[in-house]
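Consider this:
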Amino acid sequence: MLKSKRYLYVGFMCNQVIEKMFKAYYVKAKGEQPPYTHKLIRLAEEANLYKKMSDEQKDFLDIISPLNIEARYPTQKQQLFEALNKDVCKQIIKGTEEMVIWIKKLLEN
């Protein structure tokens, strides 16, 4: 998707990865189904994960959160399209990879 310049989908898929990781952590931490939401900050807070995050990780959530399914709607799609480019998407991918590694470590403990 990055090579074909489908930047909205890069952001959307990275958002989905983080959402699924947060939900996995929620299930392990709470032993129950996570809430039905796509809101990353809410998921992190309810899983008691947000307070463990660094300021950099919280800043990353602010960047990636708008790229959820709601961003598929035309009112936000154009704004996001204009904000995303190859370099921004590379940073989003990097941040996603780092977040996944961090959550995997937490899940192993």
Observations:
- The mean pLDDT is 90.
- The helical segments are 7-30, 40-46, 55-64, 74-83, 86-108.
- The two ends are 33 Å apart (CA to CA).
